[in-house]
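Supplementary material to the annual report.
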Amino acid sequence: MPPPITIPVYKPDLSGKEKSFVNECLDTSWISSKGVFINRFQDGFSKYIGAQDSIAVCNGTVALHLALLALGLGPGDEIIVPSLTYIAAVNAIHYVGATPILADSKLDTWQVDPEDVARRITPKTKAILAVHLYGQACEMESLCALAKKHNLFVIEDCAEAFGTKIGKQHAGTFGDIATFSFFGNKTITTGEGGMVTAKDPAIHKLALKLRGQGLADTREYWHDVVGFNYRMTNICAAIGLAQLERADEFIAKKRALKEKLQSELKGLPIEFHSEAPGTTHSYWMISILTQAPDQRDALRGSLRQAGIETRPLFHPAHTMPMYASNDKNLKRASDLASRGINLPSWPNLSDQEIAQIVQCIRRHFNS
Ligand SMILES: *Cc1c(COP(=O)(O)O)cnc(C)c1O
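Predicted assembly:
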């Protein structure tokens, strides 16, 4: 039996105005999906990332579903998505009846490879779903150029890229529509929660309508399309607003943590997931690659024995039963997945906890 976990992979910081904002919901009895915090969170979020409008929803998976529905994607449509991703992105394509076409990743950035995306475009392709993984940005210039050439939508899954930038522009503002998650371990959290931001006002309006049961503008309790209840509660939005106020601080701390771990672990046979030139990595997860899969498992074992929790990289979707494929051109996704580790990545890790992680990894490699 391994010892109890003393350093988890993630722990949100809720020490700002979260409690007072939530108490305001309770005191005023606005606990459901109406109330002042919904708009304040949506507006604050739009301002932060530089989006026109934002739609708060109850998690990042329904955000993806809503985005694909709002673009009118469905049966017969192919949507290209990286195989190396969190499964929600691929599942959302399945929910609308479209076909996920899995693409390979780049070994240096771990993001979807635009050249492989290009190779997979067919007359049925309708969209590219770019997933910004672990806080790094996808190559949006190449992906958007491809989309323009072939008349495709671009969806950005920014669940792991809140605060990530290319140049001065935030992830989530390059494509037609973007989605975010505020799960407990994401860079800002609402417990469970998500956001959708669309560029085209008509698409925004449709997403808004579908979030709220497809309610028509013209008549009370009249529904003219099949909608959903994907709303966020005022309580979650209250937490989100408090988190948003401290977003810069969280990201700065995570970036500093990555620099510190990397410099303390210099010279070991591990490679840090790092910022691509011209981008700002938000380090949702501070991640490393070992040289071989068995080394990865051994290192994770040593850390676990020391009470330190880590995560393996996502299993590529093409290795899962629902999306299984023998495609030989997904090798890099498999390779990365077999060698990658997410280290503890929360903003308030203490110097002592960082020292414990460093000491354990150094000892593991006998150096
Ligand atoms: C977390 C995550 C999601 C899903 O968000 P939930 O809020 O957990 O539903 C989607 N895509 C990616 C890449 C994620 O990391």
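The chain has twelve helices and 14 strands.
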